[in-house]
Amino acid sequence: MTTGTGTAGRVTARPAEILLVEDSQSDAAMTVHALREGGTQHRVHVVGDGQAALAFLHRQGRYTDAPRPDLILLDLNLPRTDGRDVLARIKTDQHLRGIPVVILTTSSTDTDILRAYELGANCYVSKPVGLDDFLRAIHGIENLWLNPVRLPAYCPHEIL
To answer: Which domain holds residue 56?
Structure first.
């Protein structure tokens, strides 16, 4: 659970905002399902390509009311704009670079792993093939990046 200070000094909870950038509908559905099972208070926003991810992050087009993500789960092999390019743009943007980005992809090549970390990825997870292993991987991401982490109760729109 994420906490912050509400009115009159009360502690209030707000859901973590997760941006899932995934072009595979089945992988996106499994990821959302696994996150629901985890019990952390969150809202998942799914986009299917790199250009949509950048539009979401910059609140452009149909995403003008998009929240600032607390965590980005990013596939590398995306249509339109590749995940590596999306990662590079996030980590070189002064308003976005503080958002943790977890690479969640099928690739397990040393080249992809090294390149992702060079571009500023906070974590790299190769998608397991079996359903149980996939669920465990998503729960591990959730436990690492959302459960012990404190998020601000309010993130002003102006900082983007």
So the answer is: 14-149
- Report the distance separating Cα 127 and Cα 140, nearest Å: 12
pLDDT tens digits, 13-67: 678 899 999 999 999 999 999 998 877 788 999 999 999 999 999 999 999 999 9
Residue 53 CB partners (closer than 8 Å, separation 6+): 19, 21, 47, 72, 74, 78, 81, 86
Please identify which residue in the block is written with the tokens 């012990």: 148
Asked if the structure places residue 2 within a domain, the reply is no
Mean pLDDT, the chain, rounded, equals 86
Instruction: Return the CATH number at 108.
Output: 3.40.50.2300
What is the DSSP secondary structure assignment for residue 87, as one 8-state letter?
H
- Listing from the earlier edge strand, what are the strands of the sheet with 71-74? 42-47, 16-21, 71-74, 101-105, 123-126
pTM above threshold 0.70: yes
Evaluate whether residue 95 is within a structural domain.
yes
The count of structural domains within the chain is: 1
Which residue in 121, 129, 78, 128 sits closest to 103, CA to CA?
Answer: 121
Neighbour count for residue 131 (Cβ, 10 Å): 11
Q: Angle at CA 119, nearest 5°, toward 148 and 34?
A: 40
Considering the domain boundaries, does residue 7 fall inside one?
no
